[in-house]
Design brief:
The chain has a four-stranded mixed sheet with strand order 3-4-5-6, covered by helices on one side. Strands 1-2 form a two-stranded antiparallel sheet. A hairpin with a 5-residue loop joins β1 and β2. It is built from four helices and eight strands, in the order αββααββαββββ. It folds into two domains: about 60 residues; about 130 residues, no CATH class. Helices cover about 45% and strands about 20% of the residues.
Length: about 200
Amino acid sequence: MGFWSKLVILALAALAFFYVKVNFFDVPHAKVEKKLVVEEQVVEPVKKAENVQSSKKAEENKTPKTYVTVYFLGMDKNDSGIFKKVKRELPQGQSKLSYALNQLTIGPTPYEKKLGVYSEIPKNVKILGVVESNNKIIIDVSSNIQTGGGADSLYSRMKQLIKTALANAPNKPIYLYINGKKAEVLGGEGIMISQPLSENSLDG
């Protein structure tokens, strides 16, 4: 057998060995590795999708927050008195109007005070009752809402109360009572008040 014949036989043997190795050993191993990688990639997105769905459901189940509007006082850049509207979160199960009026009597928070917010409502004023019927609402306030501070202070505090009431009440006429009696004239200053309450109740 000549040299070239032996070389051809060796080359064919090498090709045969490589063919057997690739087809009967390497390929199955490669397929298994590829399958494991694919399974890891599929499982991870499914878990993330489940987490996203859970987060969405949790957001949907959350009760949206409700706020009341309370009117205080402050100064503008020209040092003129203005009304300052603040928001307070309403606890679940409470009446918006009753809660807003009670927050009004409590006064501004320390943070609000730092921003120049103040109130003319005397600290010992109490909301004696808020009664809602089919066709009207009655707000009963303690008589000390009328005392101290002079005409300007009395006017401002009553405007605070009126604006707060109108902002948080349903669409019904609102009447102000003081110690159980319908208010007609306020304090020793003799400020007239027209009812039901409106933005112009003190301007007659």
